[in-house]
């Protein structure tokens, strides 16, 4: 049985209806069930055995659900499994939900980090790994919370496979 | 005495002259000295007691040098300290070196992570921290290298102070 | 009991329906009730114990309502509290209601101030506070009216926490 | 005789040479003299009897110098008055120094305030003043610093004449 | 009693339904009544005691109707006054109906005049009035028709208050 | 012999060097001579028998000089006629000096008038003239100054040939 | 009685429903009737005594129908004349149906011709006609088909009145 | 021996130096020689046995010169053949000289024709030729002048090979 | 009788409903039938005797169906032939379904290849074929899968007719 | 000893100087030597043991040279090896040489293929490989020429590693 609400005490995240036209049909289905059952991504992620960010991405149509994910989602959200199967069967059409540059202040800060440190990341990565890129596909990410006397700190980790440019 | 070259065996990062018009006067000064002395950011970062990404950002005009940084840079790069003082005295005019969306494949992958996972990050951060943002100012970042049987992995950590929206 | 109309004698602000698709579901709910009851933001702000701009931002989906705000809004606007709770439970997805550069003449003037004086603000702020930014999150703002023999003057105050760039 | 440096102890603001192509000829003249003499905008503003932001705007070519300003600038910066007269004689061609949306984090925060609160400002201003705009021309602005136990706060005041739309 | 049709013999202007989503609710109401009653802006303008361009702007949601305008509009268009009051009570959210650069050939020609002669206007206005702007708010405009042996000429007059930049 | 300075007492308009790369070679030639001789466009326009705006447009490379204009310009500006002939012999490559939307506040106000009143102008012009456009080529424009108790007013007149769409 | 289908044997052109939101109400009316009756623009153009391109433009809301056109369209398309009169009574709001640069390969090729040969056209037109433009209003255009041993050739003719810039 | 000036009596077209940075090295070479020798494109085109528009395109770097063209250009322009060979040896990098949408009024009119009639051209071409495009590569174009009692008319002919989409 | 599912074992591709407004009416018809019958593009392509990419393009409204294609599609998808005939009768309005630059990671990689190697392709093609282009119309493309010890490789072949620029 | 010219008989590709500001310092060095020695990419590619497209990309700063490449380039181009080492030592800053959408007709055709077939490629790749992308990094490409009775055909092959999205 799943806990309701978040462990942090903050309200759960819900869907702003004004972005629904940019999302797949599964997004309102999933978010409405999440809201009715008052479940956090932490709770749902545990039920799926996945990272919270991956699950939130799945809700926004940015990650693919496996058959087990669908089964688990149907159970934890008390949704009809065949409806979920139908709505989640496709391959995600990623990236369209977000306008770039992002107007949302939280997302803008992440964008700004890339804008400001992009070349610095490249220079250091090149020196450590050679000519190539960090994959955004063979990739995982997670969010952690740290607290010290100055307050709370968000720690985002990006971990991607290094792909050297092929010589041809 | 500083080591030359990188510890990874890959060549050091140098400056593409075609972006010089978008950089402050200090950037070509610093990068030329780095090239002549064949120093990695790892070596320079140790000399300054700072993170590699911070030092690379400083070279690209995206971070401010403290008076000690200037002294140390002058020493490790064998540059005239008063020249560096003059070129690094201002406040960085950040962000202008990068076109967005980035065309550089490595930087684009980072941008794409924000584009694809932006709302997922927001949803999870909101559930963990409430309504606010992760600061990109009261912020640090670092790059680590992990290697397993599948190859090399780049791990980028973003750590920022959580700032709740003020109620007014 | 709340006063109707504005204290200035000017009509109250209502919602242009053509921007509704860019706003959360709560915006038409709130603005319709405001129109029916003919309440100014001044009156509603008093009922909530908040600044007028904060309340107008809340109506446009740009600020988060606390549980007390929801209770007070339900009362002053004579709206069903559970409807408001449901529509205002999420975290604001800020910034999407406004096209930039703004076409609206009033908002454009504010944009133009930033466009014209942006570097001047930066230079003076840097000299007063060092390298950093004025937070737009740990932030409040208000509007006051002054009148002299030349006519009316709008006075907008922006007050934000100074955040120095972290050294790392 | 003018004081050198800033009263805050932070270094003075100087000019990033990479934006010089977007500025009038007077900007490098003024900024170089300011740097050589190590003068803050506060000091120069006192010498001119103007607001710091106005003086910084003048340095960036965003405000017009009066004949007295030119005389005072020549004196405080130890510059040739006829050179300044020649370089400052024109009418400012405002706004071109800034890319919008701004990439500079400090200026972006100000832009974001307009982006997020633009309609809220409009609604409250309309209710207080009727149909019109706050002038950005018949306008003044200033920056103040406040300090409390939470740290430093930047306070920016925008004061503009209210202009009602003409009926015709 | 109002005349039907235009005095020029050309058909009256009606509303292209494809821009309705960018207009306030009042626009289709007004334009439909105008079409049914076959009234020109000249006729309606006389009934309101306003300029034709102002009335057309009001129909497109770009100008505010006074209470008398609403009364007169209800009468001349045979519309329910309370409906008009409700739809025209807000403050215009100006500028959003037009994409810039305009694709419409007639409007593009006006845009092109600004594009080509913008700096010339500025230079001549500066020499005649000093440093400032011509207000677009404290402003009126009208269209006149002249005919000579070469054909018809449209004469558009723009009249705006001169606003000098404040010294601060 | 030409008068120096403007009749209004305001300084003459000069050229901001930062837009020179967007202008033809004739522009700096003409503006420098104008500055040295301290001539207003009013004075030069009289010498050429043309409108001030036309002459300013010619200085900005937006209008063609006739052989007589070149002769007169050489005389009034004390420039070498063959140099002017060479620099002014081509056909103007119009429109490139201005970024649109204009950032300059004065020019933006004119742009905003088109943005806000564009459809209103179209509707009224269509009712007065039928389906067509007001030419921006077979076109003249002028600026006048009016003064009343409220202050100064700028009056800009646009006069263009009406061109009906051909039926084919 | 009108012939059905095209004389070339190719299917008739119909309307892609996804651009309907960018077209006036008359466009789906006209195109549906054209499809039901299986009429080519050639056939309809003959019935109206106009060029095929003009008629296709009329169907896309880019040209004005005369009263006779409306009568003829009603007859050839077997549509209710009063419906057509109502839908075609306005003045075309031209240009909005097309995104520029065009994504459609056929239209892009025309755009590319202007992009590549624009300055060449200007130079040759200037040498032949002086300083001015070729009108796109006092203008006609047609398409012809030529066939030789290499295959089919499309020949598009643009014919516009030459308008010299007015001297003022 | 070539005639000087144009047959129309209008001055020859020359190069606006402000677009030189967007053109290949051959463009200023060719245009300067053209100016010195006062040759029209008509005269040069005759010497090359090519269309005027093709020659103007070659001057702007938009068409390739054959070895015979280079020989003929060297002769008619009295230029060093080996210089021309060197500067004209590459493959044109087409399209970069023109900003789109074009700001130049003459070129804009051509762009506007595509914008307004693009879909009409497509519909008529599809009905005449089937599914395909008119080639802009296997393509020629020319300009003719017609004069009637109404004035001068520019006639531009575009002739391109019809390419049907391959079935695969 | 057609096989269901893909031969690779991966699920079939379906349609993300959020792009339906950018597609012709035929796309949802075709994709829904494909989903109900669980058919891969491989299976459908065999039934039509066409390449998989061509069939997928047809489903997205980017390729024209021949009468035989329509017959075969109706059969394999068990759809009403006359409905398909009606929905597929028009000429494709290509390119509008895709935003450029593409946000979808898979499509972005293809875009990036053009961005990075565009000039390299041009240089090599020019050396092999002369001045011209590779046609995207007289063109075919296919996807193949190769597997080696490093994993799977996607091989995309683009084959287009070489079109030399016409000399004129 | 290397052959001069191309095997096709077409001239070799050279560098348009107007894009030099967007390229690294190595590009003009390499292209000038190539021009002087009249070498095709085919010849140079053989000397380096690499694909022609890879070598052309290296010339445009889009691919990294290995130490052996530098040695071979110095030899085949008769360039100073230490100069090449210095200019080619950095990591390529890819993508900046190309404006997107490309204006160059040849490159545009490739872009258009992605624009038109992007979703079709995605659908077919997903069905063949599952959820993932074709790498543009672990990637090679080549150009071949085929000739049949219809003319020449360019065949471009793109071959990339398939990367499945990580599950996390």
UniProtKB/TrEMBL annotation, chains A, B, C, D, E, F, G, H, I, J:
* Annotated protein name in UniProt: Cyanate hydratase
A Pfam family it matches: Cyanate_lyase
The residues responsible for catalysis, as annotated, are 109, 112, 135
Q: Which HAMAP family match?
A: Cyanate_hydrat (MF_00535)
Biological function = Catalyzes the reaction of cyanate with bicarbonate to produce ammonia and carbon dioxide.
Molecular-function GO term, any one: DNA binding
Native source species: Aureobasidium pullulans
Xref: InterPro entries: Cyanase, Cyanate_lyase_C, Cyanate_lyase_C_sf, Lambda_DNA-bd_dom_sf
Give me the reactions it catalyses.
cyanate + hydrogencarbonate + 3 H(+) = NH4(+) + 2 CO2
Known PANTHER family for this protein?
Answer: CYANATE HYDRATASE
Enzyme Commission (EC) number: 4.2.1.104
Please state every residue range assigned to the domain named Cyanate lyase C-terminal. 96-168
For this UniProt record, the keywords arranged alphabetically read as follows: Lyase
Question: Which SUPFAM superfamilies does the entry mention?
Answer: Cyanase C-terminal domain, lambda repressor-like DNA-binding domains
Question: Which domain of life does the UniProt lineage start with?
Answer: Eukaryota
The enzyme's main class, written as a single word, is lyase
- Provide the family line: Belongs to the cyanase family.
Query: Is Signal set as a keyword in this record?
Result: no
């Amino acid at each position: 049985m799943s806990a309701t609400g978040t462990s942090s005490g903050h309200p759960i995240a819900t869907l702003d209806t004004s972005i629904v036209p940019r999302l797949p049909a599964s997004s309102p289905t999933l978010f409405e069930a999440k809201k009715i059952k008052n479940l956090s991504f932490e709770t749902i992620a545990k039920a799926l055995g996945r990272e919270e960010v991956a699950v939130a991405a799945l809700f926004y149509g940015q990650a693919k659900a496996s058959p087990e994910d669908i089964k688990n989602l149907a159970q934890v959200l008390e949704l009809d499994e065949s409806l979920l199967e139908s709505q989640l069967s496709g391959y995600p059409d990623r990236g369209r939900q977000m306008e770039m540059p992002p107007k949302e202040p939280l997302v803008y800060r992440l964008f700004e980090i890339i804008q400001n440190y992009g070349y610095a990341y490249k220079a250091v990565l090149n020196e450590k790994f050679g000519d190539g890129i960090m994959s955004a596909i063979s990739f995982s990410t997670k969010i952690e919370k740290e607290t010290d006397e100055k307050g709370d700190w968000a720690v985002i980790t990006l971990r991607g496979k290094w792909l050297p440019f092929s010589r041809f």
